[in-house]
Amino acid sequence: MATFHGPARLSEDEARAMIEGIRWPNGPECPHCASDNAVRLEGRATRPGVLKCRDCGKQFTVTVNTIMHRSKIPLSKWLIAFHLMCSSKKGISALRLQRELGLGSYQTAWHMERRIRYAMTAGGLGRNFAGGHETVTHSAGEYVRGDVSTDPVVGLV
Ligand SMILES: [Zn+2]
Q1: Contact partners, residue 51, CB within 8 Å, separation at least 6
Q2: Beta bridge mates, 40
Q3: Under a CB-based contact definition with an 8 Å cutoff, are residues 62 and 49 in contact?
Q4: Selection from 67, 8, 6, 55 nearest residue 28 by Cα
Q5: Helix ranges (DSSP H) in the chain
Q6: What Cα–Cα distance (Å) separates residue 72 from each residue in 31, 37, 69, 108?
């Protein structure tokens, strides 16, 4: 598994590969049916990172059912945000996150921060991204509404 150095220099492909390695240490697993029989779709018409399950036939990427699902924020920026938040004991402010990541709006940074805090409480993320750092504990209910289940790596929102 890749170690966590210099997230600022990661390309989107590298960032995706890193997240895949963390979420799927034993190879891709279909988030729809949990099959490990998936094939990577490649070709110009395909979005990068798309896989297709050979069992249920559905397509997926590593971000399905994670806090990054359907996010327009580049994965490399998510990784930087994880790193910043996991390596700081007190966490960092949304304002600082906005500045560090060059995000267009404070609200985007605020939402990102909220999701990451939730994922940290759901387990896995802090440990995986910060190599055994203790993560700040928050009440998950504070950040999430509706039905919630958790993923071993990154909590669902
Ligand atoms: Zn499947």
Answers
A1: 28, 30, 38, 39, 40, 41, 59, 60, 61
A2: 51
A3: yes
A4: 55
A5: 12-23, 75-87, 94-101, 106-122, 125-130, 140-143
A6: 20, 28, 9, 10
Residue located via tokens 């590298």: 14
> Measured in angstroms, how far is the CA atom of residue 50 from the centroid of ligand 1?
13
pLDDT digits (tens, 9 = 90+) for 101-151: 999 999 999 999 999 888 887 765 434 443 333 333 333 333 333 333 334
Residue type, 29: E
Distance between Cα 38 and ligand 1 center (Å): 8
Beta-ladder partners of 38: 53
Q: Measure 58 CA to ligand 1 centroid, in angstroms.
A: 6
How many angstroms does the Cα of residue 39 sit away from the middle of ligand 1? 11
